[in-house]
Amino acid sequence: MSDLRLGVYCDFSYRVVDGAVFAELPFIRFVEGLAPHCARLVVLGRLDPGAGEVEFPFALRGAEFVGLPYYRSGADLASVLRTVPVALWRFWRALAGLDVVWVLGPNPPQALLFALLGRLRRRRVVLGVRQDLPELIRHRRPGQRLVLAAAQVLETAFRGLARRLPVVVVGPELARKYRRSPVLLDAYVSLLSADDLLDPAHDDRRYDAEALAMLSVGRLDPEKNPLLMADVLHRALQSDPRWRLEVCGDGTLAQALRERAAELGVADRLLLHGYVPVDRGLWDFYRRSHALLHVSMTEGVPQVILEAFASRLPVVATDVGGVGDLVRDRGLLAAAGDADTAAEGLGRLVGDDALRRRCVEAAFAAAADHTLAAECARLAGFLSMNS
User: Cα–Cα distance between 154 and 2 in angstroms, integer?
Assistant: First the structure.
């Protein structure tokens, strides 16, 4: 353990239940992976004031928590701005016991202000970027010009600040966009453990089986483009009638996906399982399926693709964000919205044993190189270097 006293801010929500802190999203597991490398680790995030429909399943372990004022959505600019004074005061107080703050942004406006506040208090500030914010808003909130304009302003301001501060980005595409930073680390947010890597001797899936399963894992929301999966399934079935599509995930377009599948006559080959936790059945889906289909319109470096790599599951994915750099030569790529090429890729992986083996072995090696322990060690070394 080093003497590093680290604070981590990201625009996620937390909830306190009987004195214990719970996170809404699994990113906290990656942050906790930094704890063995720190003398003190402090997580700062929105404190959700009460119970609701959204589950907070990830107990915070190995880190302290500082709650910031709550707002439901970063797209509600008025609500976000109302929280700024109290948020700045709590962040300023937290800085007293820290050496380095890792501020992930560029959204919301607090991220930029927190970075400036850290500099004002003479703390080392490292910026973090996980996704192209304007591109995300274009797909998640189409037609909301004010929200898109705000995202573009935040992105521009964050990139400007990044010219003076160390930056951690997720994926080569963001590394290119932030290349003017004085010090840059391209990292993967990986949650893989060594135990998640499937021993080749235990990979018993057969590609001459009577049925083939293409798997999708992730939210069914607009930026993930889930309706395209029905079109891919329809086209894949024209070449190989063994396919079915199994979807692990939920979201606003779940019913629309069912309707699109019915319209195309493939509803009987679509199974929607809802959200499946990674520690309660998701690995079974990875290890018994025959290909992962990932059709998002915008991405950083998806954890689900790393999980497929670790499971020796062949991947067909759209070439967006950091996906192309991750999947190229380890799977097959298609342009966003191109159902024909995606379906063709599935057929190639099933029918060409040599191609499939090459992709799977290269992908598995990448997963082994990018476990949570390995990535957190790299990140901690980078943060310590800048402390």
Answer: 34
